[in-house]
Amino acid sequence: MFPPVDEWPDNDLIAVGANLEPETLIGAYQRGIFPMIVELPQSVLGWWSPVRRGILPLDSLRVTRSMRQSSRRYDVKVDTCFVEIMKGCADPLRPKGWITDEFVEAYTRLHELGWGHSVEVFDRTGRLAGGLYGVRVNGLFAGESMFYRQRDASKVALMFLVDLMRDVGMTLLDVQWCTDHLASLGAVEIDRREYFERLTAALETTGIGALGARSDLLPNVD
User: Fold this and answer.
1) Residue 130, phi then psi, degrees to nearest 5
2) pLDDT band (50, 70, 90) for residue 94
3) Which helix (H) or strand (E) holds 145?
4) Which of 71, 125, 177, 217 is the most exposed place for a label (fewest CB within 10 A)?
5) What is the rounded CA–CA span in Å between residue 126 and residue 155?
6) In terms of Cα–Cα distance, which of 197, 144, 205 is closest to 171?
7) Alpha-carbon span 29 to 34, nearest angstrom
8) Do 95 and 181 form a contact (C-beta atoms < 8 A)?
9) In which domain, by residue range, is 167 found?
10) 131 and 204, same structural domain?
11) CA distances from 184 to 60, 61, 134 (A)
């Protein structure tokens, strides 16, 4: 379905088309690829593997005093309202929104199958303050998007995710592109070859815990 790595173009977009079925998505993440809508000029499904990949090393998260103070005001949970988190990330008022109803449906299916996970942050009144979602495959967590409605809520979700990953022995937190905001939190850029090396090691890592991985259902990518 995807071209061999040695046929990939020297840019971030490597293919268009295909579908968002679970086997397609998990097979893509195993290859270092993720989906996102692209305008060509009409909207089509694009498959991306950035030449300069953003990752957040688990020992490099920058936790500020403000973030620590905020974390005491919130309750954090995992996988209790996945769809609400996706819809928060898909808010049409957010700039450069790309999470369509098709994406919400596809990733909700991944969540039901045990691949998709959300970290949810609630204030003391029980209102959803923010969160993030992504996909776990063994030692990889592919972060897809995060949002906040109250101060530092998405950052608190990220803090919690990093702690969870450490606890269960996961090794690679993929953030796709290293934006200025993510760089301020400790994200860095690595080249595609180094990312593949880290991905290979992460896929060989198994673990248990709150972010359960369905390694028994991994598609064949040979």
Assistant:
1) 160, -175
2) low
3) strand 140-148
4) 125
5) 18
6) 205
7) 6
8) no
9) 52-209
10) yes
11) 11, 9, 20
Burial degree of 44 (CB within 10 A; 0-12, 13-18, 19+): exposed
Mean pLDDT of the 10-35 span: 96
Q: Tell me the one-letter amino acid at 128.
A: L
CB of 56 within 8 A of CB of 175?
yes
CA-based R_g, the chain, Å: 17
Q: What is the pLDDT of residue 176?
A: 97
Q: Tally the residues of the chain.
A: 222
Does the pTM surpass 0.85? The reply is yes
Asked whether the beta carbons of 144 and 175 are under 8 A apart, the reply is no
Partners of 189 in the beta sheet?
Answer: 54
Same domain, 36 and 136: no
Cβ-contact 211, 83 below 8 angstroms: no
Q: How far apart are CA 151 and CA 25, in angstroms?
A: 32
Distance between CA 110 and CA 61 in Å, rounded? 27
Residue 215 is assigned to a structural domain of this protein: no
Please, what is the end-to-end C-alpha distance for the chain in angstroms? 12
Residue 57 lies in a domain: yes
**Residues 148, 116: contact at Cβ < 8 Å?**
no
Give the span between the Cα atoms of 166 and 172, in whole angstroms: 10
Domain contains 214 = no
Whether 167 has a pLDDT exceeding 60, the answer reads: yes
